[in-house]
Amino acid sequence: MGRGGTSQALVASFAAVLLAGSTVTGCGATGSGPAGRASPAGADGGRTTSPSPRVTSDEDLCTKLVGHWARQVLNGRSYGDYQSMGLSGGQYDILREVVDSVRAAERQGTADPGQSIDREAREGCAEWYRAGGPGKGPWR
Length: 140
Prior knowledge:
Strand content: under 5%
Shape: globular
Helix content: 55-70%
Number of helices: 4
Distance between the termini: 66 Å
């Protein structure tokens, strides 16, 4: 291969890397751009808008985490410590309350565990954040 072939191969390799990078990161993709701004949709000249990203509130995140771990515990998986679960001390307290409550309801046959977990996790997290949420220490 001559000198021209080597430089063509380098250009082709560089182009492939750029293309791969733009595919993975979404750079230059149709409809990409800052949220809410219109960008070209193609040859037909149509325009689309990108949805803005959804932000999860602290309360919703707490509810999802507590619900997830409550299901794990109630399905016979071990508790572990709150840090290994990615929970704060307050979230772990809510988890223990939810698990205890759902187990009591299951013994009585009065509740659907899935609905009870979701409801109690939401109520516990809402109350916790109403009271100020995490304290000054990282474990709260």
